[in-house]
Design goal:
The protein contains 4 helices and no strands. It is an all-alpha fold and 101 residues long. Helix 2 packs across helix 4 and helix 3 packs antiparallel against helix 4. The longest helix has 25 residues. The protein is elongated and about 70 Å long.
């Protein structure tokens, strides 16, 4: 029994055929693909940020974080890091709101 010619094609050759098809037949360029990926990543980033802050009260988060740090042992360096973290999240929320406009 004779084998089909496609069984002798290597993965490398298949990939080359696929790339040629995309470029020659569909006229899809690397720039097209990069643009689609960038758009998809931007969309996912916005969704991730939204999910991170759903139902979160930033003021409450800041109060809890500061209280925790002060109670630990008045470690001001760590408290400062926590404040910066909470402030950063609030800034991200505001940037997200601006991005949606």
């Amino acid at each position: 029994m004779e084998k089909n010619n496609s069984e002798h094609i290597t993965q490398s050759e298949k990939w080359k055929f696929f790339k040629n098809y995309l470029h020659n037949e569909l006229e899809i360029t690397k720039a097209d693909i990069r643009g689609w990926i960038e758009d998809a990543v931007k969309h996912q980033a916005v969704e991730m940020i939204q999910r991170s802050f759903e139902g979160a009260d930033i003021d409450d988060l800041a109060r809890v974080a500061i209280s925790k740090e002060v109670r630990k042992s008045i470690n001001f360096y760590q408290a400062e890091k926590e404040i910066i973290s909470v402030a950063g999240k609030e800034m991200a929320k505001e940037l997200l709101a601006e991005y949606k406009k």
